Amino acid sequence: MARILFTVPPLTGHLNPALAVADALSAQGHKVAWAVHARQLRDKLPPRACVYPLDAEDPVDSGIADPQVRGLESVRLFFEDYTLPIAERMLLPLEAIARSFQPDVMVVDHQLPGGALVARKLGLPWATLITTSASILKMSPMIDAWVENQYLGLQRRYLPAELTVERPDFSPHLAVVFSTESLVGTTHERIAAPYAFVGPAKGDGRRAVAFPWDWLQPGSRKLLVSLGTVSRDRDTRFFEVMMAALAEMPDVQAVMVAPESLAASAPPNVLVRDYVPQLELLDCVHAVICHGGHNTVCEALSRGLPLIVAPIRDDQPVIARQVIDAGAGLFMRHGKVTPAMAKTLITQLLGTSSLAENARRLAEDLRAAPGAKGAAERILQLAAQAAAKPALRQVA
Amino acid sequence: MSSHQEHTLALVIDHIRSTVNEDWIADFEIDRETRFNDDLELESIEFVKIAEALQKHYGTRLAIIDWLSGKSIHELIGLSVGDLVDYIAAATEPAQA
Questions:
Q1: How do residues A120-171 score in pLDDT, each as one tens digit?
Q2: What's the CATH number where A226 sits?
Q3: For residue A81, which residues of chain B lie inside 8 Å, CB to CB?
Q4: Among A26, A187, A297, B18, which is 20 to 30 Å from A44 by CA?
């Protein structure tokens, strides 16, 4: 049985795919441990999970630095104020954890470069989990050079010079991407890494969420409206515009993931919930309005659902563009959309057959992809290779 | 602001409105201070469309993409209509001015 150490940032969209992979590994009897920010993640992990806290000595919980920023500014801030400080703080605790747990293989979320650096320093075999396909694309020479420079500074402070590389964040052994090549498209060149496209994780491992299923009426056209967990509480304007548009569309029912304080002003055909069983809901709806979050997009497309994408920050503009380029979605400008425009777009979303056809075409690949189980298999292959080559196992 | 700059500003604003082509932009106040990322929520692909249209209008006197590629990430994030207007106005200054 293999010993596998997972390390992921305290962000739902990164935790969920890792949970599904860990679930597949544990089910086969392998020993899984988690090195995580336990104050934020402990209650989202399985009750008997083996957890090593990374944040025992952190003064406060580190949230996303500024929930209001958008576009390229959010990318800069995510690096400078979130990813890099977390990486710096976790290097020594994680190194100690890895020496103590003695993993055969480490599984490191791509947004947690501290994990990548520890695996590199200790010479452990490791896999990168990439929860958004935007991470693997070359964007522009200026942005790519800036990213490399950020990583260079981090490496210089921790790794011996001979281990420093251009992109330490990608494992040279295995880079698991929770998407498919047909969705990623060919508009952008990819950063070189040993990719395994496994498609969406498919959700095993998430906790159950109660939902009033009898609110959904047979015969109505149903929408899920969600901006994801990071932007849900950003501001209420977007949700208010959606409610105003939907109030004039009584044949449509929408479940909106938003602050529950909005429920009082919601029209009868809009149900406001602050947390929903997203996968089960996606099985009941006809289309989705979302922020272009990678998990939500892949989960919707896996079911052949067309989308309206209203990207805000981080990787969302890139993922939204993939959906639009594939012909499966329409663009909505998050902070500017008016009720009139929203109504026009929703009518198009539900009435344009090519959107649904293209979504169904993408769904074939997404569903055929092996998901978390495929990722688990590749990780076990890596562990087996490493066991056969003792030179890789240098943890002392 | 010189009349050449004012003329350039009006032309850039026209190109922004026609490229975005959504209901809100018709009455949205755009001036030199308006930022492409924060105030207009333009995607990079839309900004490139505007740049290409302006490039087509002015022809070889401009090299907007080269000008952009020399910008740092901080400059790109804060890029305003005025920054673009200043570049275009300087590159297309009438000879007699």
A1: 999 999 999 999 999 999 877 788 888 999 999 999 999 999 999 999 999 9
A2: 3.40.50.2000
A3: none
A4: A297
Report the distance separating Cα A47 and Cα A62, nearest Å: 23
Q: Does B73 touch chain A (CB under 8 A)?
A: yes
Q: What is the ipTM of this complex?
A: 0.87
Task: Give the three-class secondary structure for A330.
Answer: strand
Q: Under an 8 Å CB criterion, which residues of A touch B?
A: 70-73, 76, 140-143, 146, 311, 317, 321, 333-338, 340-341
pTM of the model as a whole: 0.86
Q: pLDDT digits over A316-338, tens only? A: 999 999 999 999 999 999 999 99
Whether A205 maps to a domain, the answer reads no
Q: How far apart are CA A273 and CA A263, in angstroms?
A: 8
A143 to chain B, minimum CA–CA distance in Å?
7
- Cβ of B65 under 8 Å from any chain A Cβ? no
Q: Where are the beta strands (DSSP E) in chain A?
A: 3-7, 31-36, 50-53, 105-109, 126-130, 174-177, 195-197, 221-226, 252-257, 270-273, 287-290, 307-309, 329-331
Per-residue pLDDT, A396: 44
From chain A, the residues in CB contact with B27 under 8 A are none
Model confidence over A352-391: pLDDT tens digits?
999 999 999 999 999 999 999 999 999 999 999 887 765 5
Do A183 and A166 reside in the same domain of the chain? yes
